[in-house]
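lol ok so funny story. i was supposed to be doing the assay writeup but got distracted and ended up predicting the structure for this chain instead. priorities right. anyway since i did it might as well share w the group, maybe its usefull for someone
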Amino acid sequence: MSKVTIHELSKHIGERVEIDGWLYNKRASGKLQFPIVRDGSGYLQCVVSKKEVDEASWNAVDGATQESTVHVVGTVRAHQKEPGVVELGVETFEVRGPAEDYPITPMEHGTAFLMDHRHLWLRSSKQVAVLRIRSEIEQACRDYFYQNGFTLVDAPILTANAAEGMSTLFETDYFGKKAYLSQSGQLYLEPAAAALGKVYCLGPTFRAEKSKTRRHLMEFWMIEPEVAFLEFDGLQELAEDFVEYIVGRAVERCQEELKTLERDVSKLANVRKPFPRITYREAIELLASKGMPAEFGDDIGGDEETVIANSFDRPVIITRYPTAIKAFYMQPDPNDPDVVLGMDMIAPEGYGEIIGGSQRIHDHDLLLERIKQHNLPLEAFQWYLDIRKYGTFPHSGFGMGIERAVAWVSGVHHLRECIPYPRMLNRIYP
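and the output, tada:
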């Protein structure tokens, strides 16, 4: 007799096995009980016949409560009504860790209640499905860059620099000096690109934005590539290829999870390159044609992104934003100095921006001027200027928020369900 996981059971039909897990649900019909056991790898219907088990096992099933830890022994067999599915004919059933008054029941609960019990809500089938999709997407990110010759470079979490503006920094004391939680690994990837050519990082980032929208978190994870000698057109091609790969990978390998979430995967079928590309100016014209007047220099918010995305059947790339509304390090367009060689990729179905990136300024004096224009502390960026002082080179990169990609692929409405323990404006518990 072997101890196996539920996921492995299809390889053990006809064998006696042991299963350790938790009671997910149960039902009964006369002298038969049907406990559903989960072990983290899957869900298993167990069949308990009163005439085939001892009294202790029958009573254990009868008295077992939701999420109790259980140990089950039985024989694996094919499900009589569901081809390709297995069930367990139970010999013994034992409760090894009772769960009394489990707070999350099959009834409807409010979001605030579920978030207060996030550590338990994670066990529900839909939350498990989302986290498995998240895991697959993160693995796909790593595999894509590994297969394409990138080197992983771990960027620091504590920094002395702002990548996206001083107003959204979480400040902390660093032995009497000011330090900040990282907004991005980008600034550290740029010098790494000078050493290794093609690099990326994947890690937590922090934005102190007082936002309550479904698209924002205070702490989120971001995948960021940076490539030496890559210019703007190549950057857009990299972003397209990357997104096509990770979406296709999730659809291929997370079929059961997407089914659990009732995701219409046909809506992901059009994630095929090339993606449509429009300039910021064309986006403003498109918005005006849809009755949403906007002017050059206006930021494109969530509602505007949705209107733009709904005009296409796949992700759309918006390029060449006004210099005044973008980060200090973005390269000006040599043909139009009022805009930068920056891009955002907007996902369909109202999921908004999933990628933001640009070609970086590689001219030392221009970057120095921009740092001063943005009133950033020069001493904190001297090392960053050194990249342009000692063998400067054109380079580009982007960042993709993992949670936004997971929300889009999963069809989940709010980012709070796309990270195990969300940090939002008024929530840092549990």
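The first strand starts at residue 2 and ends at 3. The first helix runs from residue 55 to 63.
back to the writeup now i swear
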